[in-house]
Amino acid sequence: MDDPYQNNINQPGEPYPTHGEGGEYTYPYQTDFPPREEDDAASDATEGHDEDEQMYEGEYQGIPHPDEIKEARRAARREARTKARMAAEVIEETLPEQYESIMEDCGHGRFQWTLFTVLGLALMADGVECFVVSFALPSAEKDMCLSNADKGMLGLIVYVGMMIGAVVWGGLADKLGRRQCLLYALAINCIFSFLSCFAQSYGFFIFFRLCSGIGIGGSIPVVYTYFAEFLQIDKRGEHLSWLCLFWMLGGLYASFTAWGIIPHYGWGFSMGTEFQFHSWRVFVLVCFLPSVAALAGLVFMPESPRFLLETARHDEAWMVLRQVHDTNWRAKGEPERVFQVSQLKIPETQDDEFIEIQSETGTAFQRFTVRHLTLVKQVMKNMMSLAAPDLRLHSLFITIVWFTMAFSYYGLGAWFPDQIKYLQFEDYESNVKIFHREKVERFHFNFTLQNQVHREGEYIHDRFINIEIKNVKFEESLFENCYFEDVRSTETFFENCTLKNTVFYNTDLWKDSKFFNCKLENTTFLHPKKGCHLNFQEENDILIYLVCFLGSLSVIPGNIVAGLLMDKIGRLKIIGASMLGSAVCTFFLLLCFSQWAVVLFQCLFFAASAAAWNGIEVITVELYPASKRATAFGVLNGTCKLAAILSTFIFGKFIGITKIIPIILSFSALVCGGLLAFKLPETREVILQ
Question: Global pTM?
Fold first, then answer.
C-alpha cells in the first residue's frame, strides 16, 4: 500500500520544495532557506546534552508541540474576541456620526424654528412659575390670613415641586420619550395651575401649587434634551442659547402682568363671603396661559428621532427625519430634494424586548404592575449609571457648578426684593409721626391715618367712618363712646388700651388679632369683616414688580452675548468668565446703602450671570449620551432647585440683621464654581453621543 505521506517526505538528494512547487501537498517554505552551516552549529550545540533527558520525538520533524497548539488556539480566541469588541465599538461610534450627517443633510430651517417656538413657550411657563407665588404672596397672605410660617412654606413649596418634577420627568424622558413626557408634564401644570386660582383655603392652594410645580419641573430637562437632538453640531450652542431667552421672557411676562393686574382690586368677583376671586387670582390664571400654548403646539410636534433610535423604533425615526428634511427644503424652495437615507444604525435593545414580552402576559393588573415596576427599575438604574467610572468625575464637577450657580442666583434673586423692602421699611420708620397725650373730643375722622404712633391719648365721642388706617399703633390710650364703621386697616394695633362703650361696625379690627392687653368694657363688634382684607394701594408692592421687571429685562443682553459667542470661544470660557464676573458684582453689593444702588447691582448681577446659565445648560446636554441625557439633566436641575431652597431659606434669615453673610456666601460659591468649570471637557465640536 502506498504511503499517503510520501509526498511530504523528501528523498535523499532531492531539494526542498519552495512555495508553488511540488503539487498540491507542498508546504509554503521560504526560498531563502537557512544555510547548512547553521544547522550544523545547532546540531553541535546538542552534543553535550544528557541522553536520559526526555525529548519530544517530533521536535526535529517540524511537528509543533501539543502545548504550543493549545496556546496558539487560546491566542486566536483572544484575538477574535478583541476584534469582536472593536467591531462593536465601531458600530456604536458610527451611529452618532451617521445621525449627525443626516441632520446636516436635513438642514436648519422651518421645522427647527417651529419647534423652537413651541419649546420656548414651555420654558417661558417654567420662568413664570418661579415668579407667580412671590408676586401673588403679598395679596394671598392677606386674603387667606397666612402666618409667617405659612408664607415661608408657600414660597418654598414651588421649588420643592419643581425639584421632584425635574428628577422624575428627566428620568422618564429617557424611557418613555421626550415629547410624551413633556406633554404629561405640561398637562399636569395646566390642570393644577387652573385649580389653584379658585382654591379658597391655604391647604388646597399649597397642594395645587405643589402639583403644578411637579408638572412644570420637567420642562427644563426635557426641553433642552428634545431640542438639542434636532440640531446639527454647528448650530447647537447658538440656538440652545437663544432658547434660554424664553425663560427670561417668562420673568418679564410675570412681572408685567402682576404690575398690571394685581393692584386693580376690582378685577375680580365674589359669591357671598365664602368665595372670593380677587385680582391676584386673575393674575395666577393669566400666568398659566404660556403652558397652555406650549401644550397645544406640542401636540403637532414629532418625537425625537434620536430617542426612537435608542428604543429600536427605526422606522418611526426614519419617518420623522424625512419630515424634518422635507419641511426644511420645501420652505427653502427646493421641494424636489429627496431624503436619501435608506438604512439607520440602531443599538441593541434586547432587555426592552424581553420586558415587553413579560408585560403582555397575565391579568390587566399584573401587566400594569410589571410595566410600571420595570419602568421604575430602569429609571433608577439609569440614574445610578451616572456615577459610572467614565462619567463619575465629570458628573461631580458639573453638579458642583450647577449647585454653586443656583445657590447664588436664586438666593440673591430672593434677597434683592427683601432687602429693598427692608430699606423702604427703614425709611418709613424714620418718618413716623408720634403723638403723645393728645386729647380729641367729638371729632369726625374722615381721612387716612398713616405711619403714626399715638401714646397715652384720649378719644371721647369720636367717629371713625369709612377710613383707612395704615401702620398706626395706639399705646395706652383711652377710647370712650367712640364709633368705628367701614374701617380698613393694615399693620394697625391697639396695645394696653382701654375701650369703653365703643362700637365696631363692619370693620376688620378683630378683637383677637388687633387688640393686645386691652380692657374692653361694654365694647361691641358688629358684622366684622371675614377674612384678611386687602390693601392694594401700597406702593411697596408696585415697586417690587418694577424691580423684578428690570431684573428680568437686564438678562436679555447677557443671553444675546452668550448666543453669539457660544460657538466661537467655547462653553467653558463662557461659564467661567460669567460666574467670575457675577462674583465681582456680588462683592460690590457691600457698598450699596440705598434702594436704587441695590437695584443697579441686581441688574448687573443678572446680566453677568445669564451667560453662565446658557453655557451650563448647553454643556449638560452635550456631556452625556442619548440614553442618559434627560436623566442627567433632570438630576442636575433637581440639584439646582435644592440649592434654590437652601439659599432662599438661609438668605432670608439675615434680612434686617446683616448683608455681609449672604454676600460672602454668594461670592464664594460663584468663585468656586467658576474656577471648577474650567476642569470640565470642552464640548463645542463634539458630536452628540
Answer: 0.74
